[in-house]
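hey
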């Protein structure tokens, strides 16, 4: 579903694609106050259609859009215009998805909740930050398991059945494990 059609204003165009309508409404208002012309879609197909029509300079894409991956939208946006500044936003962060998002052309990767100022900063960030804090302890076993499941799922192009077969587990078990939020370390 597309909330708004292009109007070709002088403000920089920002594409926001997330299946959470309330989150989109709040972020749309906050980003409009920061000088962006916002275009919102709540599904992958709507995001692609809108991107082709609007040709955004900036994009904020959710990693998980319903049962689809926002990574495919990152790839499509880069194909349309390699200069589009893309932030991948997710409540399901993992090392595997962060690496893939950056490889596909995302400018930055943020975990939810992220506020509008953090998103704007990420959209304009041109280089890495060598002052990022390094954790004192290794990841927990539960977090490592979650990371591994994400990696295998990506290796199988998001196909849960194929990933479950590769992991030697039942598809429903894998789905249940993937629905849980990652363990914080």
């Amino acid at each position: 579903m597309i909330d708004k059609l292009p109007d070709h204003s002088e403000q920089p165009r920002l594409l926001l694609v997330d299946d959470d309508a309330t989150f989109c409404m709040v972020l749309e208002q906050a980003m409009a106050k920061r000088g962006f012309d916002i275009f919102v879609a709540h599904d992958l197909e709507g995001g692609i259609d809108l991107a082709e029509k609007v040709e955004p300079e900036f994009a904020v894409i959710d990693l998980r859009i319903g049962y689809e991956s926002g990574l495919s939208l990152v790839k499509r946006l880069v194909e349309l215009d390699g200069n589009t500044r893309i932030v991948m936003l997710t409540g399901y962060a993992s090392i595997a998805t962060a690496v893939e998002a950056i490889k596909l052309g995302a400018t930055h990767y943020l975990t939810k909740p992220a506020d509008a100022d953090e998103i704007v900063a990420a959209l304009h960030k041109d280089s890495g930050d060598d002052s990022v804090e390094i954790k004192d302890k290794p990841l927990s076993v539960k977090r490592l398991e979650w990371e591994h499941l994400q990696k295998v799922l990506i290796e199988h192009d998001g196909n849960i059945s194929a990933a479950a077969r590769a992991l030697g587990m039942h598809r429903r078990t894998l789905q249940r494990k993937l629905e849980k939020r990652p363990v914080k370390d």
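The two ends are 36 Å apart (CA to CA). The helical segments are 21-33, 44-54, 71-80, 95-104, 116-124, 141-155, 160-167, 171-179.
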